[in-house]
Structure formats: C-alpha cells, structure tokens
Amino acid sequence: MRQRLLPILVFALVMAAIPFVPGVPPFWIVLLDNIGLAALVAMGLVLLTGVGGLTSFGQAAFCGFGAYTTAYLTTAYGMSPWLTLPMSLIVSGLAAVLLGIITMRLSGHYLPLGTIAWGISLFYLFSKLEFLGRNDGISGIPPLSIGTWKMLDPGSIYFPIWIAVIICALLSMNLLDSRTGRAIRALRRGHIAAEAFGVQTARAKLLVFIYAAVLAGLSGWLYAHFQRAANPTPFGPHLGIEYLFIAVVGGAGYVWGGVLGAAVVVILKEVLQSYLPLIFGGGGQLETIVFGILLVALLQLAPTGMWPWLTAWLPSGDSRKRPAPADALPARNDHRPDTGVLLQVDKARKQFGGVVAVNDVSFNVQAREIVALIGPNGAGKSTTFNLITGVLAATAGKVAVFGKSISGARPQEIVNLGIARTFQHVKLVPDMTVLENVALGAHLRGRSGALASMLRLDRADEAKLLAEAAKQIERVGLGDQMNQLAGSLSLGQQRIVEIARALCVDPLLLLLDEPAAGLRHMEKQQLAALLRQLRDGGMSVLLVEHDMGFVMNLANRIVVLDFGTKIAEGTPADIKTNPDVIKAYLGAVA
Amino acid sequence: MVSGADSVGERAALNTTILLFLLQDGITNGAIYALLGLALVLVFAVTRIILIPQGEFITFGALTYASLSAGQMPGTIKLAVAMGVVAFAFDLFTFRKALHAKRVLRSIAVNIVFPMAIWGVMWALGGRPGNIALNIALSLLIVAAIGLYLYRIAFQPIAHTSVLVLLIASVGCHLALQGFGLVFFGAEGQRGPAISSDAITIGALRFTGQSIAVYGITIALIVGLWLFFGYTLYGKALRATAVNRLGARLAGIRTSLSGQIAFLLASVIGAISGILIVPITTLYYDTGFLIGLKGFIAAIIGGLVSYPLTAAAAILVGCVEAFSSFYASNYKEVIVFTLILPVLVLRSLAAPEVEEEKD
Amino acid sequence: MSTLLQVTDAHVAYGKVEAVRAVNLEVREGEIVTIIGANGAGKTTLLNATMGILPLKGGVTFTGQDISKLDIEDRVAAGLSLVPEHRELFATMNVEDNLLLGAFRIDKATAARSFERVYTLFPRLKERRKQLAGTMSGGEQQMLAMGRALMGAPKLLMLDEPSLGLAPIIVADIFRIVSELRAAGVSVLLVEQNAQAALKIADRAYVMELGEFILDGNASDIASNQRVVASYLGFQHEGASAI
After folding, report:
1. Were A73 and a residue from A79, A239, B25, C28 both cysteine, which residue would form a disulfide, CB within 3.0 to 4.6 Å?
2. What CATH code is carried by the domain that includes residue C240?
3. A168 vs chain B: nearest CA distance in angstroms?
4. Residue C214: its chain A contacts at CB < 8 A?
5. Which residues does chain A have within 8 Å of residue C243's beta carbon, measured at their own beta carbons?
6. What percentage of residues in chain A have a pLDDT greater than 70?
7. ipTM, 2 decimals?
8. Which residue has better confidence, A206 or B345?
9. What architecture (CATH level 2) is domain A341-586?
C-alpha cells in the first residue's frame, strides 16, 4: 500500500510545486494544463481500450457533452460552475449509457468504426444546434471560483486540473485492483471465460464505457472553464482520434501511460509548432507532417507504448507478498449430498447447421463421483461441456442439476449453481498474476461494486477473495508462482491455475477439459491425488482427458463418445474390454 | 459533400423533377462512395488496416490532375520520388541478411526507376498542359506509387501487430499526407476539367458527360475488380490472404506482396474517385477525409466483408445525403453518420457476438 | 540416402517458457519420419518453428542450404511444405482454387502436372473441385490440405496430426496415402498422437516429451520399446501409467 502511494505522492508534490518555482515560463503552465486535460480523457481510454479491449474514437464527443453542459447552464441560467460539475458528469454518463447500449454490443472491428460514426455525427450536431451557438459555440463562460478567488489565469486553473488528474488516476488504479477491475481486465480475452465465473460482461463493458465517458466529461467541464468558451472544433473526430493515439503512444494498458502519452503528444505538437517554422521557415503545415511521421515511427519502435518501455528501465518494485490472512469466505449453503444424481444430461443434442456435434447423448454424474468423457477429437466432448455450462444452447434435450432443468440458463446462472469449469484452450488473462486470475473464480462470492472499489471501501471483501484465491493456489501446489504473470507459466501449469480458479467457485461439480495435458508424470499423479481428495470431500468431477493411464486409474465411470454419439458407458474395466470402444477409439490392441 | 444540390436552398415541394434530380445526384455520389467502400473493404480484408489515408488518395489524385491540367508541376511527384527512396532504403535494410542481386534490382526498378520515369515524362512536358488522358494517367501513376510506398514504409514493418496499432499508424499517415497536401496544393480549393463536356437530356433529366463517366467508370472498375478477384492468380492470392493469412503464407504467398497490391489498388481507386469528382465540385486539400469517411460508412454497413452489400450501401448513403441536403441541409452530415447506428444495431441483433481469439 | 532436413540444437520459446529444448532432428531423402509424443510435448511447436512460423534458436538446413533465416514463403519455395494442425484452408474458396494457390510459387507447366498428381492421389477432390473448402467434411479438408501442400511439388512434406479428429476409417485412408507419397519420391515428417498408426508406416521415429527428444531409432524398434508401449501404445499396462 505504502509502496503504491509513495510515487504518486512524490508526483503530486512535484506537480504542486511547479507553479511556485521562480522563472517557470507561464507558457509551460498552459502546456501542463493541456496535458492534464488530455490525460483525463486518455486515462478513460486506457481502461476502456487498453484494459477492456474496447476501442473508442468518440471520446472527444463526451468532452463536448461535459463542456457544452456547463457552458449552456452557466451562460443561459447563470448557474455556478460547481453546480454544473455534477450535471456535466451526469450528461456525459447518460450519453454513454445511450451510445453504450447500442455500440458496446458490437464486437471486433464494428466497435471502433461505430464509435467513429457517432463521434462525427455528434460533432456535426454540436456545430448545428442553435442553442449551442452553432459553429461559433458559446463564449463568456464564467471562470471557476472559490470565494472571491477567480481562476482566470492558466496558473490557477492548473490546480483543479491536476488535482482531478491525480484523483482520477488513483480511482482508476483502485478500480483496476479490485473485483470489478478483474472482471474488466478479463473482458479483453473474450467473454466466455469471464461469464463462466459469473461476470455480467455486458454490464462490465457498459460500466467501463461510462467511466471513460465521465472522465472525458470532466475534462470537458475543466476545458470550458479554462478557455471560458466552447466551440465544436475540439470535440470533433480528429481529437477523438488523437486521444486514442495518446493512449496508444503512452501505453494503452497502463493508467500512467495515459498521462505520459498526453505529455509526449502535447509537448511534441507544441515543439513542432514553435520550432519547425524556425528551421524550415514559414509553413505551419509542416507540423502535422512531422507529427504524423513521428507517430508512425514511434509505433514501429515501441508498438506497446512508452510506459512499459520506460518502466522496464526502473528497478521492479513489485514485491507483493502472499495476501494477508483474512476471514474465510462463507461456504456454499447448499447441502453436499452423499448420494443421488447431481447432473443429468438427457438426450442432449447440438446441431451446427447440418452437422450434428452432439447426438442425443445421455449420461449422469452422481454425487461424490468422478466421471470421464473420452473419445477422439471432434467426438463432441467439448461441445457437451459447453451445453452443460450454458455457453451453447442445446438444439434439443435436457440438462438438469439436482433434477432442475438448466436449459436456457446463461453461464453466469449455471456457475451460481455450483458448476465450475476449465477450458481446453487455456483462457487466463496472461498479463494478470496467477493470484488475480484465480481470484476471478471467486467473483460471485464477493459483493463490492465499482464505486466501493474506487474508494477502497472494498478492502475487507477483497481481502477475503484474495485469501480464498491464495488458499486454492496453495492447494493445487502453485504457491510459489502466485505473484507471477499467468502468461509466464508453462501450459501445463496454466491448466492447473484454471483448476484453482474453478475451485474458487466452491463448486459442487467440477468440469475439467483435458486437465492433464502437458503435465509431467509426477504432476499427473499429484493432480489425480487432488481430484480424489476433492471427491472424498464431497465434490463431483466430470473430465475430458486423452491420457488413458490417468483416466483408467482415476475415474469411477467412463462415458465414450464417437461422432457425437455415446457408444459406451461403464467402469474402466468394462470400457477397456468393450469391443466397440476398442474399434472406435482405443484401437486394436498392439 | 460531393454535391450538385448545394444550391437547393429553399424548401420546395417534392415533385417528380426534384425527386429524380436528387436520386441522380445521390446515385452519382453513391457510385463514388461505392468505389471507396470497395477499396476500404479490400485493404481491410487483406491487411487488417483501416485505411484512413484513403481520403488523401482522393485529394492527391484530384488535385494532381487539376494542377497538371493547369500546367503546373504538382508536388506529389516529388513526394512519390522521396517515398520511393525511403522504401528502397527499407528494402535494403530488410535484405541485409540475404542480399541477392535480383531482389535489389527489382527494388531499384520499383522504388527508384518507376517514380523517376514519371517525373521524367512530366519534365519533358515542360509545364505545357498535356491532354486529359495523359494527365489522368500521370495522376494515377503518381498516386499509385505513393500508395505502394506508403504500405512499404509505414505498414509492412508492423504488419503483424494488432488492428488498433495499425489503425493508429493509419491515422499518422493520414495526418502526414494531409499536411503534404496543404504544402503542395495550398489552402485554396481547385477544380479540374471535365472528362467530357457533352450532355444528353432524357425527359426532365440532364445527364452531363461527367456523370455518365462516373457511372461508366464505376461499373467498369467493379467489373474489373470482379474479374481480377475471380479469374486471376494474383486476385485469388489476395483473396486467399484475406481468408487465411497463415494458409496463404504456407502456400508461398507473401503477405507483404498482397498488402502492396491491395494498397496499389486502393490508391488507384481513390485517385480515380478524386479525378471523377473534381470537375463537379471544388476540392480542398482536406476534403478527401470526409468523402473517404462516407465510403467508410458504406463499408461498415457492408460489414467490411461483402463487396455487393458495400456497393448497395454506398448508393443508399449517397441518396440519403442528397435527400437530407434537400430537406435539412444543416443536418446533412448528422443524418448520414447517424444512419449507421440503426444498421449496426440490426447487425448485432441479427448476429450475436461470437467469441474471437484476439491477437 | 542423403540428408534432406537437418535441425540442430533447436530451442523454441514462448516468452520465458521453452517449449522445445536442444532438439536434433534429421530427415533423409525418401524417408517417412515420425515424431510421437503426448499432447503438449512440443511437437507442433517444433514443426511450426522448422517452417519459420515461430522463431527458432539453432540450425535448420534443408537440402544442404541454411534456411534458418528465411521467411516462411522462401522455405516453401525451397521445397519445404507444412500441412498445419488446423489445416488453414481458404474456406470461402473452392477446391480447385485452393489447389491452384498451392502452386503459387511454381511455373504453369509444373502446376498442371501437380494437379494431375493430386487428383490421382485424391480422386475425391476431383469430384468436388467446385465445392467450397469450408463446406467439406473433416476428412476431405485434410485431403485438400495435403493436396494443396503437394501442389507446390515439395521435397519434404511435414504433416501435423493429420488424423486429428477424423473417423478411423478415414485415418486409415490418410495413412495409406502418406505411405504412397514415399513411393512418389516425397519425404514425409509426420507428427502424430496416434502413435500406433504412425509407427506402422514410418521408417524412423523420435519420441518427444516435455520439449525434448527422449528416444529415437527405427520405427519398429521404437514400437517395441517397453517405455513407449507403456506410455503411448497401450493402456493395458496401466500399472505403469503414463511415462
């Protein structure tokens, strides 16, 4: 905690001291004001684009909402700027809700293109609306004031701007380092993994979009009172694009990358504007040329942005230890039955077009039982998993948990019933630590929301989640790797991390898709021992696995699929001697 | 933007003549947006680059043609020569591990000899305005060279990075080229001579030679592209790259070659669009951006994959623009750019998002 | 028999994790060589790195020429061809166009001969030559992928899990064709989880575990090696489990 805050405190003190250093040209202060304003917008984009993976070109329009709201209310109704601050933020936020509901659904490349479109559309709207003064905009906006102190000059508005930047940076960092933050960070890797642990991905996307819009709105509000005028130009598509590349140049994955990017881009533009004409004479247009070329060159040299490139030079201060012990999370209330059918798959069928991937498959999993699903690749094993966990909807048939049908239930509801899974193709967030990845598994067992996280009111809840995650990591034997980035682990270890993440759900039924792939012999034995221990503790396991030695020694029962159809079911001893299975899957005995 | 309906200021009742006039205007503009949309789809499918500098290809083509027609030496040729030299340097740097004479010679031919030859022709003309066909050919060649080198210099080194990084680089190129546009052509708008000054009148409608040229060339280009992609080895190779980059590489098709061809086609299409527009409407150094964006809208509606859908959407965009400039000229751009939102909503409702493995 | 492909002291890493360590591999002319091993052992990584898809530290020579610095496309031109695990077909193009593009780097006359050869090996492809690749069954797609790779008249064909997810009867077909290729003068480097089938048609074999080769030798020797039998060929020795 101290280590995290110290650099920020130093930064805040340095920024606070700058205006008082004798001999600082007033012009530098203007630049710093502009940097701060851009940094606010870029910070929102860091969360939205760099962390959440949602590209937006339209942030300048949200600045416009912030600026025009205060411009209109202060000039037309004489409201105090401090009263219009919440209004500006609310208007930007509401605009984000409307646009977000439409555009956040868009996937892949539609999203950035959609944001370009409404960004341009809003720009023209600002410049055509009569009450916003059309192209001329609104002037005569009152300055911010405290008592009789009016912040008329760049040196005084400097303080509100940079206080806002530092507070927002803190809030953003707090948000990222929380239950909600992990959900947002998981978005970039696709929604399936996040939803499998109960994250409402649509809501998380909208949330981060609103957050980014509110930061932009704040920047717009400050801008309006800094310039004391608002016209459409700074809220147009070019600026929207510029904010995005501020974030990319700075390092789109890092909160401070937004600030660094703003500094680099604003200063670069200024330097080019003032010095190029001295070198080449005349022509102010040179600045855009050189700026564009430098931008392309910068991307070729550092495609991930400058912040990670810079911090690579600093000694790594990451010395986070094992999370402090905390009260255990309450265990699942449901009874853990000793007998009876836990999961029943009844004539489940899945067709993709004309292809039948799962063909009327029926089987069940009893309480305290390990069932293995085997068969050649393409036999429908993973599809069956996806039907059970709600990723895919069955074409026909029924899946029931404790006799209650879960057909049509969404993944978030199914995990809530106590069914947790791992994936055949590992779906971890590679740039999150093992601990953070595993803590995502406990998402549904935490309660803190985004606001509480930003204000650090979530610490007790968070400590419990992290303690639970740490416990499960120790349990699967990866305690030493807890603070490493998940992407730096071997594929076999990553599969084990996925198991720990699933265990954080406190599941009744664990679905494991090829858990032993890539493990060494010893590790396989440890995994088998762990699964037996879990079973004896009251958990059921359904697993897909190709390693027959592993399966035959572990499973109570085996279900064999071939071409989507169940061809056999029975104890390992039955399956080994079943002629159909030998023919379709195991092959003639050598 | 490209509008013959600028003067329709007063609100008149919609009669058949006006309706037909607006439709004609919309279709003419739509045809041009269709060309641009096709080029954008092509470039995106092959290279994953969202081609923001498409607008500059339009202005460069148009204003180079206008300058040549006015007997001036356009600055774009110098840019082409300079970019060729830089592209050659990039080539040499890439070849440093395996320097073959054949490759170097090919690179010299493409990057040095080609732009110098164009310059030579222009120098030989000595400032006399050449005939229209020659001017058009020279303009196309210059812009084609710029497009080709732009890919080599700006995008080929980062071809493997994410769509976002490519997009930002694309913006950088747009800014730089737009700056060059201002340097070369100044802030004044220009017009160029029409390809044909004839006109025919059918009923209430007057078709200028220029608008017929727009239709004819658009159709010819679309048919040409269709033939190219459907029946030539290189066209198929380009499609293959778009469908499956790794598969294409394993078949021995260089992605850099596909990228260069895509940029070559896109720049030529952009320049043709510009040359078709510039006799109808005054173009400024920064007009291309907005025209390109409308091609974009069409491309987005087409989902960045479908050529026929893109062409149809482009005609729709042109017509919406023409009608809204008649009814609510103030909100023309708002309407055109908002048009896309319902389309996107429909698209996302029709096809729920699919999981994609991000790079 | 002269050496066709030689990989020496190869290391391939994903970030900090080495997926392939100190591997030495040789394929001679006219040979079928197989690499067997469990899922995740590094077989696919090794093939991809040999093809130039992944960066490889170490030496790769092909027909005596150092190809370790060449791009994928130039390795293709040198006569090395890979049918990757996911086949990577041009799904929205028809069979004929897929094959045609396989001959992108060679002259027209050779391409015409290649067409004949591929259609003889895979009569099914000729019947379906106007069908879109993406609409074909898994087995047909595998045939098309192999056909496309053969169109460029490669000297060495590298096959990554050709039997993956296919019906056993088609697997038998594929393996029969692979052994026919040797007769047609194409050498094959075959990566398979289906060790039984692979060892049956191969001349030599390597066994890969955790990124390293732990065994190599004649396919028949490998097939009778106790450890290999226990790990890859039969579950009946489950007392010894995997490895």
Report:
1. A79
2. 3.40.50.300
3. 25
4. none
5. 520-521
6. 93
7. 0.91
8. A206
9. 3-Layer(aba) Sandwich (3.40)
